[in-house]
């Protein structure tokens, strides 16, 4: 029986073939879930790419959308995303003002197309929103860091936008004209704010500490100048230049050099004698009537150089010299 059982057993080659076949089937069973997982991941990635592509195309198409258009909301969402990716406060303020200027351009296009009143209200409301945000951020920067140039640029920008809206209001619907007037009044307020705030930048107290829709409110009252402030920009001096003498000492009267006195004013009478200091090199001499007589040379004769006694008695000596 043992020999019969041993004779019916598979040989080593057969056992190896069976082992390989079982291992291959197990490997296929394990690979099938992995392939299904890769397929799901690839499908999800393709869906995300499709959504991004459609979103990019939609955002590109909404670039020229006007207030009241179906894609205008997507355009505003893109602007909000752009602000979210901007981290510098000055750049954010500039973007808000840029978007506000874009609204004015869109309103101009609405007047050409004869758009409904709701579109004007939407555009003007968004204009005021961006205007307030931009001005409040910019005035905060000016208060902290100074900058008369920034305020001057903002004032010029506000005046230009007000002029553009003034040209559009004549072609806008009658129902929207009050909204145009409100927007222009806000721009006038911006110009006043920049002027008032600029006049306080050289003061110790710049703002009241409170804010309104346009940002920091300038302080009122007397201005105590702060020339040592690192961010105060002093306006140009228009008064007469100070004298060269120090303010704490009296101005010199007789210490000016004679040459400058002669050049600036001609004397009307005889010059007074100097009261102190070094006399001028050239002094006019008055008439000789008041001066003492000059000494004569005969009062002190010079002694003879050589005296020879007389050779003959009775004759005077011989003097040589």
UniProtKB/TrEMBL annotation:
Pfam families: DUF5667. Residues 65-136 form the DUF5667 domain. The keyword Transmembrane helix applies. Residues 270-311 have a biased composition (Pro residues). The keyword Transmembrane helix applies. Residues 214-311 are annotated as: Disordered. Residues 235-269 have a biased composition (Low complexity). Keywords: Membrane, Transmembrane, Transmembrane helix. The chain crosses the membrane at residues 40-61. This is DUF5667 domain-containing protein. It comes from Amycolatopsis keratiniphila subsp. keratiniphila. The lineage of its organism: Bacteria, Bacillati, Actinomycetota, Actinomycetes, Pseudonocardiales.
């Amino acid at each position: 029986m043992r020999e019969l059982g041993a004779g019916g057993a598979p040989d080593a080659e057969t056992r190896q073939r069976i082992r390989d076949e079982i291992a291959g089937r197990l490997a296929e069973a394990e690979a099938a879930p992995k392939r299904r997982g890769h397929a799901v991941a690839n499908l999800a990635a393709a869906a995300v790419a499709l959504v991004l592509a459609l979103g990019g195309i939609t955002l590109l198409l909404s670039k020229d959308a006007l207030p009241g258009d179906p894609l205008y909301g997507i355009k505003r969402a893109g602007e909000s995303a752009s602000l979210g990716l901007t981290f510098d406060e000055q750049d954010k303020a500039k973007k808000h003002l840029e978007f506000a200027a874009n609204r004015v351009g869109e309103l101009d296009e609405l007047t050409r197309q004869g758009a409904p009143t709701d579109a004007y209200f939407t555009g003007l409301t968004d204009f005021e929103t961006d205007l307030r945000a931009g001005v409040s951020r910019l005035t905060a920067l000016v208060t902290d860091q100074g900058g008369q140039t920034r305020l001057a640029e903002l004032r010029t920008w506000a005046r230009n936008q007000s002029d553009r809206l003034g040209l559009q209001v004549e072609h806008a619907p009658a129902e929207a004209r009050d909204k145009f007037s409100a927007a222009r009044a806000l721009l006038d307020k911006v110009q006043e704010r920049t002027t008032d705030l600029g006049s306080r930048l050289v003061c110790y107290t710049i703002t009241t500490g409170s804010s309104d829709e346009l940002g920091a409110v300038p302080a009122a009252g007397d201005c105590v100048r702060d020339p040592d402030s690192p961010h105060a920009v002093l306006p140009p001096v228009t008064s007469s230049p100070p004298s060269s003498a120090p303010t704490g000492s009296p101005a010199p009267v007789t210490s000016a050099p004679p040459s400058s006195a002669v050049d600036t004013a001609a004397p009307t009478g005889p010059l007074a004698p100097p009261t102190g200091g070094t006399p001028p090199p050239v002094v006019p001499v008055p008439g000789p009537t008041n001066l003492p007589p000059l000494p004569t040379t005969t009062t002190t004769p010079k002694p003879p150089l050589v005296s020879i006694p007389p050779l003959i008695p009775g004759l005077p000596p011989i003097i040589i010299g």
